[in-house]
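Suppose a classmate hands you a notebook page containing two proteins, each written out with its sequence and a corresponding row of structure tokens. How would you begin to make sense of it? This section walks through that situation. The first entry is reproduced here exactly as it would appear on such a page.
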Amino acid sequence: MTFFNLRVPFFLPVWRRVLTVAAIGGWTIVELVTASPGWAVLFGAAGLFAAYEFFIIFDPEKYKD
């Protein structure tokens, strides 16, 4: 198991993947509005990584136990 392993069965339903990416993106905007660019970059990168994992290279077989 790795620290950034998002390939777990919990994320098989599409609504959970969309909600996760939206929540991270929303928090990125909060950090930008509150003038915290360092945190915004960190959360923005995490959101982009999650979007890449969940929508670009998504393979349901890799999310099984």
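The notebook's second entry, a different protein, reads as follows.
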Amino acid sequence: MSAAIEVANLRREFATRAGLLGPQRRVVAVDDVSFSVPSGGVLGIVGESGCGKSTLARLILGLLAPTAGSATVDGKRLAALDRKARARLIQPVFQDPFASLNPRRRIKDIVALPLAAQGTFAAREIERRVARILERVGLAAEMGERMPAELSGGQRQRAAIARALANNPQFVLADEPTGALDSKNGAAVFAIFRGLADEGRTVIVVTHDESLARTASRAIHIVDGRIVGEASDSAS
């Protein structure tokens, strides 16, 4: 399979200062990172808090510009695309589902919003698609009638994944999506991402949970912004 996500010699530095009058220094958050993820692959990026993995995720999503190197998705640098084009290509899933779930809207309306924004689907078709997406992430149809606050943490994260899937992206990047969940719910959410890969999508999951990362088709270990090791799932 060809590489769908390609990261080449990626580096990101930040300028920091000790106090208002202290000398400025450069901190390297991501340091010469290179890897590729083939179509239909699941890559786990694992490391402790502060190791640079979330900065790496933002670089891939085009939310940060690299100091050096490049990150491309399907041959495109996301930073060069407009917001709508990025949304059609790749969707993020974050640790806190409230970052993507409007607390004042029902779940089914949240998932429907990206579909309605396209302006190409009739209301009945949107309803069918929303029901299918909710089922895909393991939420019963009646969950669509609830508000985010009425769901458990695991259910909210499933709803956040459902919203990400509404635009039918080929790529999904999840940043600590199981960080606030217990081990059972975390494993169930990770299984959803593996299922997306089985459907042909390409998935990157950033996590501090090494046991979950090892269930990906491949995992890389980040320490101080650098790759220090990697492993592949022998069964994949």
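A careful reader of the second entry would note: DSSP finds seven helices and nine strands in the chain.
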